[in-house]
Predict the structure.
Amino acid sequence: MNRKLKWLAVSALLMLMSGCSITPATENSPFYIRLTPVPSSLHGISTLEKFSFSGVVSQSMMVQSELSEAAINLVAMSFEGLPLVQAQWHSHNDTVTTSGSVLAGLNPRLIVHDLQSVMWPTEQLTTALLPGYSISEKQIDVNHRQRQFYFNDLVIRRIEYRDNVVIFNDFRHNYQLKIEQLDSSI
């Protein structure tokens, strides 16, 4: 069962990776934060999520992620059970390794970047922002929180958190990701 969940989580993460990494090349870098170690509050967390992309690509997948002090492990697979990719980010040397990728143009570093922009505490992201970028977060109501990233005061990304669903809009690269939590050790 644990192996099955890992495959599902990786699949979702791969979906996130493929949606983010297949965006058209632009003069604007998709990176706006330096990757930082997993916060201690997230060590030992495992999630299984459904990722649904729309925009440049439209597809859905299951992704399992596991967070530890040393690494972020991701597995993505199709809903039919086809493994799409496995990726691991190593915090000690800031490298990303992949295996088994069937997704052309996949940028696993961008997947890890986007994962951190969604999951990491705002305080940690603030210290990792590149020059010209800023972040804000506000509680809309008891079940709704909003995080926005800016470049020179222009909103480039909005992340909406509602119960077990996250809506991730990247305005710079014209894609949306809907993340539905299926299972979690949080």
About this structure: The mean pLDDT is 81. The first strand starts at residue 46 and ends at 55. Residues 2-184 form one domain.
